[in-house]
Every structure is written in structure tokens, then in C-alpha cells.
Write a structure and sequence with these properties.
- The protein has 537 residues and is an all-alpha fold.
- It has a domain at 487-537.
- Helix content is 79%, strand content 0%.
- It is built from 32 helices and no strands.
- The protein has helices at residues 2-14, 18-31, 36-48, 52-65, 70-83, 86-99, 104-116, 120-134, 138-150, 154-167, 172-185, 189-202, 209-220, 223-235, 241-251, 254-260, 262-275, 280-292, 296-309, 314-327, 330-343, 349-360, 364-375, 382-398, 402-415, 420-433, 437-450, 455-467, 471-484, 490-502, 506-518, 524-532.
- α5 (70-83) packs antiparallel against α6 (86-99).
- The longest helix is centred in the C-terminal third of the chain and has 17 residues, at 382-398.
- It is elongated.
- It starts with a helix and ends in a 5-residue tail after the last helix.
Length: 537
């Protein structure tokens, strides 16, 4: 009768009718309390449903009825592991190892149980027993090494790795590297150096050894030796470029790369380019570093190589456009921004550069069109938006569309009221038009305070003061601008001449106007002043 019920229960289990299976297996137990198989099957069903407490009780009962059944013990061990019963798991694995001496699988389970119970020495003994059966293996030796390191038994950890070197000499470079890194981690730098040297001797072309040595010498405080090892690693074509760039960006901070260790970073990037001439990332990194270092011509050369190799990477285009703008090569900037827009029509920055180039090339109508197209694409980037508004303000002024010019300057200042470039230009153009001079004075003063070493800002403030009739103050600021200018600027000289004339020093005014002409000034107004010997108002 019980057998028939058990068969029906098994069929229900196979068909997935778990409630029926549970009920029938339970009926088997009621009819035969010693039906270990029914307890086992019920335990499996509860285990599958995540009820490990009930599953454990049932498996324990099955194993109690038939203590020699390995399957009952294995299920019970799984239940204990799932429920976090470490002591129960250890007890079961000990029984299995004793019941089946020499069974490597059960010994592995036993070693794991010892580790879970923090019985490291017992785990080591168990691994030794496994090793006596199957011989030296990497898995066991590495596990023992890790245990010895946790126990701070570095000599024994080292011995395990040497054992691997002897057993598998073809892998000795990797094992030496593991030893070196473990000694570094434990603060035993001299031992680490010993094994790093063994790696270098065994395989001079190992792609990682010089990177490891660089890190070693860096920790030792030997920056010069560290850098030499880093250069060796970067010169090795076997080490992929992604790893090298990752090393560079983790080895140095951003501050180091662009300021403190700029020369070293540039040298390493140069090595990358030589070692990986067909990799766009190498030229991009080198170009960006030179761009930051204001080596604009060299940066442009590298960044042009980036897009020659792979024009599909937008970041390369943007860096190239920055280099062209810094060089003030407006024709090249117009050409390359136009090419960038053919590939990336939804990117805003190329429109900005194209607009700037067209404005500088005296094509303001086309510049406004490009700028208005780009400004619509800016989202979540206020500094970029302010640049568009600033450029639109400049260009609309050039077109004498003054209301639109003022509106865009106002938009730019709303984003950043401390934008000295906008404050300067807006104030200067208001002064030229002779309107809102008090507002212009406030903006020009702020621009001069924000950027006190910029001759253009100081001159603008002085010029607004001049327009307001504050000639003595105007002279002070424009003279400061002239003294700070790195070259003789005809506009500054002409402005100073105008102030001197207003202050009654006609002779100096004539000298300054003539000097302005001699240094390139040729406006009709300047020439008329020189001809008439007076300021024309």
C-alpha cells in the first residue's frame, strides 16, 4: 500500500503537481514513519520552495533512519549551506569524508566547511590530504597561499608558490608576479623587489612587469626610477593601449597630468604615439595634453591624425576645433567645423566654432545663421549656452542689429553675471553708441575688477569714463591698459590720445595719435585727427 502511494506521489512530483505530491509523501510517512525515502522526497520539495527549516528537519530524519545514505547527507549539507548552519555543514562534511576516505570531492567540501568556521589550520590539513592524493595543483596551492597570507605566515605562503614554480616551470613568470604583488600588499617591499626582478629576468618582454615595477618604485618614493620603468612599459607594443591609458590616468591625478607632472605625462603620451601610431586614442591623448599645454600647432597635428584614422569619434573633432580656435586659423576652423557638422549635425559645439570662424572672416550673416542653429541644440549646459549668447551679441552688433545684440548679451549675463568678456564687450558697444552710459560704467568697472590684468577690460572702463566726461579717471585706467599690453595697440594709443586732448595736452595727444597710426591704426577718424590736429566731436 505504501509503495503504491509513494509511486503516485512521485508521479505527481514529476507532473509538477506539488500540492498533491506533498500530500501523498506526507501520507507515506503517516502510514510508515520509517519511510526514509518519503522524508527525503519531502525535504527536496520544501528545499525547492525555500523552506529550509522544514527541509532540514525532514532531511535530518531521513539521514537518521538511514545514516549510511550519501544522498541524504548531501541534501542535508545543501540545506545547511542555504540556511547558514555552518556547524551542521561541518558535521555532515566530516561524516562524508570519514565515510568515503580518499574521496576528493568530499574533502574539498570539508575544507570549505572548515574555512566557513574560521578553522584555517584544519582547512590546510585537509588541502594537504587532497594534495597527497592528486598531487600539486594550482587551485590548492593558491588557496593555501591565501590562507597563509591571512595568517601572516608569509614564509609558508612563499613556499606554496615556489612549489608551484617547481611543478609548473612554464608558469613561473605568473607565479613570481603573484608573489611580488602579495609581498607588496603585506609591506615587504624588498621581497617584492626580489620577485619583480625574477619576472624581468625570466621574461624581459613581459607586458606588465615594468608597470608593476613602476608602481613598486613609486611606493618606495623613487619617482625617477618609477618613471623610467613606466616609460619601459609604455614602449612595449605587447601591452595594449587601453591598459596604458588606464595606467596613466590612475598613476597620476588630473592635477598631476595637467600641472604637476605635465612634462612626464606629455613624454608618456609621446611614447604611446610612437608605439601605437595607428591607434586614434594615442593621438587623442597626446593632442589633448598639448592643447592643455598651449602647444596649439603640435596639438592640431595630433588631433588631425585622430580624425584621419577614425572620423567617427566626435570628441576628436571637438578637441581639433578648440586647437584651431586657439591658433586663430579661421579658415581651417570654418572648414573643419563644417566637416564635423556633416557627421554630427545634432552637436551644438561645431555650430559655435563655425559661427565664430564666420564672424572673424567678416561673414556675419552666415555666422548668425550658424549660431542660431546651434543654440537650439544646447541642453543642460549653461556655460556653452552663455558662449552662444555672447557670440550672438558680438555678431548682431557687427550687423548693427543693436537690439538683438543687447538681448543676447543680457541672456549671457543672466546665466553668469561675472562673465568679464561679456561685461567688457557689452559696455564698450554701449559706449560707442553713447547710450546707457551709467549701466556701461557699472559693467566695465566689474569687468576690470574681474580681469585686472587684461588691457582690453581696463581700456573699456577708461573709455566709458571718457564718454561720461570723467577724463582724469579715464586717463588712469587707459594708461594702465597701455602699460599692461604686451605690444603697442593702436586702439589703446588712440584712446589715450583722445583723453590727453580733452585734458588740454594737445602735443601729447598728437604724439599718441601718430604712434597709433605707426603701429597699424588707419581708421578714417584717426587720420582726420592727425590732419586737423584736434579731436573731432
Amino acid at each position: 500500500m505504501v509503495t503504491a502511494v509513494f509511486i503516485d506521489a512521485t508521479k505527481a512530483k514529476i507532473l509538477g503537481d506539488l500540492p498533491k505530491a506533498l500530500a501523498l509523501f506526507q501520507l507515506c510517512i503517516e502510514k510508515d514513519p520509517n519511510s526514509d525515502a518519503a522524508y527525503y522526497e519531502l525535504s527536496q520539495l520544501y528545499y525547492q520552495q525555500g523552506d529550509f527549516k522544514t527541509a532540514g528537519e525532514l532531511a535530518e530524519k531521513a539521514s537518521e533512519i538511514d545514516p549510511g545514505n550519501v544522498w541524504y547527507k548531501l541534501l542535508l549539507n545543501d540545506v545547511y549551506n542555504k540556511s547558514g548552519n555552518k556547524e551542521g555543514s561541518l558535521k555532515i562534511t566530516q561524516q562524508l569524508a570519514k565515510q568515503f576516505p580518499g574521496n576528493v570531492e568530499y574533502l574539498y567540501e570539508l575544507a570549505n566547511s572548515y574555512l566557513m568556521m574560521n578553522k584555517a589550520s584544519d582547512a590546510i590539513d585537509t588541502y594537504d590530504e587532497i594534495e597527497s592524493i592528486i598531487g600539486v595543483t594550482e587551485e590548492i596551492s593558491l588557496q593555501k597561499q591565501r590562507i597563509y597570507l591571512v595568517q601572516n605566515k608569509t614564509d609558508k605562503a612563499e613556499a606554496e608558490m615556489i612549489k608551484l614554480v617547481q611543478a609548473f616551470p612554464e608558469e613561473k613568470v605568473r607565479y613570481y608576479s603573484i608573489l611580488a604583488e602579495s609581498f607588496m600588499a603585506s609591506g615587504k617591499e624588498d621581497k617584492a623587489a626580489e620577485y619583480y626582478q625574477k619576472v624581468a629576468e625570466a621574461d624581459p618582454n613581459d607586458p606588465y612587469i615594468h608597470i608593476s615595477l613602476a608602481d613598486f618604485y613609486k611606493r618606495k618614493g623613487d619617482k625617477a626610477r618609477s618613471f623610467e620603468e613606466l616609460k619601459e612599459g609604455f614602449s612595449n607594443p605587447s601591452l595594449d593601449i587601453e591598459t596604458k591609458i588606464r595606467v596613466l590616468t590612475t598613476y597620476y591625478t588630473v592635477q598631476d597630468i595637467y600641472v604637476n607632472q605635465k612634462d612626464n605625462a606629455l613624454e608618456l603620451a609621446g611614447i604611446l604615439v610612437k608605439t601605437h601610431p595607428d591607434e586614434p586614442q594615442a593621438h587623442a591623448l597626446y593632442g589633448d595634453l598639448m592643447l592643455q599645454d598651449k602647444q596649439y600647432l603640435a596639438a592640431r597635428e595630433e588631433l588631425r591624425k585622430v580624425i584621419e584614422i577614425d572620423s567617427s569619434k566626435y570628441s576628436g573633432w571637438e578637441s581639433l576645433l578648440q586647437a584651431e580656435a586657439s591658433l586663430q586659423d579661421w579658415n581651417a576652423l570654418l572648414d573643419e567645423s563644417s566637416r564635423a557638422l556633416e557627421l554630427f549635425p545634432m552637436q551644438a559645439v561645431p555650430y559655435l566654432f563655425k559661427g565664430i570662424a564666420l564672424s572673424q572672416l567678416k561673414q556675419p550673416e552666415r555666422a548668425v545663421k550658424a549660431l542660431n542653429a546651434g543654440v537650439k541644440l544646447v541642453t543642460g549646459n549653461d556655460p556653452l549656452l552663455a558662449q552662444f549668447y555672447s557670440s550672438l551679441g558680438d555678431t548682431y552688433h557687427e550687423l548693427k542689429e543693436f537690439q538683438l545684440s543687447d538681448e543676447n548679451y543680457e541672456k549671457a549675463l543672466k546665466i553668469n553675471g561675472d562673465n568679464s568678456y561679456v561685461l567688457n564687450n557689452y559696455a564698450y558697444y554701449l559706449s560707442i553708441r553713447g547710450i546707457h552710459l551709467e549701466k556701461a560704467e557699472t559693467m566695465a568697472k566689474k569687468g576690470a575688477e574681474l580681469d585686472p590684468d587684461n588691457p582690453a577690460n581696463l581700456d573699456t572702463y577708461g573709455w566709458v569714463l571718457f564718454k561720461l566726461g570723467k577724463f582724469d579717471e579715464a586717463k588712469i585706467w587707459i594708461e594702465k591698459a597701455v602699460s599692461l599690453s604686451t605690444k603697442e595697440d593702436p586702439d589703446l594709443l588712440e584712446h589715450l590720445g583722445d583723453v590727453c586732448f580733452k585734458l588740454g595736452d594737445q602735443a601729447r595727444a598728437m604724439q599718441l595719435w601718430q604712434k597709433a597710426k605707426d603701429t597699424g591704426g588707419n581708421t578714417e577718424e584717426l587720420l582726420k585727427k592727425l590732419k586737423d590736429g584736434k579731436l573731432n566731436e
